[in-house]
Design brief:
about 110 residues; mainly beta; 4-stranded antiparallel β-sheet; 9 strands
């Protein structure tokens, strides 16, 4: 059933010529949640926030442009085969990200639940 869903999402992204990011759960227990994310080239992600500390490992790196709800912008370089520590976002903040690279960015995210 889940395989059919993935095919439908992939087909709808291709058919609509829209950008898609995929998130694939790898592991979860009471301490951590681990997922693999692929962000398509030039793909903008909607406003969101990170409520937990996390480690991001670049499987295929690139550059993300982070845009704060307040308008502030910054560039985040995701290096391939390296780990980066990210603190949880401050309460009440939101941001969006966009892959400014010409290739997909693929990361493994390890979110700490404690």
């Amino acid at each position: 059933m889940s395989r059919i869903f993935i095919y439908l999402v992939a087909f709808s992204c291709f058919y609509a010529h829209s950008f898609c990011a995929t998130r694939e759960l790898q592991f979860e227990n009471e301490h951590v949640k681990v997922w693999k994310t692929t962000i398509s080239a030039k793909d903008p992600l909607g406003m969101h926030r990170h409520e937990r500390n996390r480690v991001v490992i670049g499987l295929q790196g690139g550059v993300l442009e982070k845009v704060e709800k307040t308008g502030g912008k910054s560039m985040i370089k995701i290096p391939s085969e390296k780990a980066i520590w990210f603190e949880k976002d401050p309460i009440g903040t939101l941001h969006s990200d966009a892959n400014t690279s010409d290739e997909p960015i693929v990361v493994m995210v390890i979110e700490l639940k404690e």
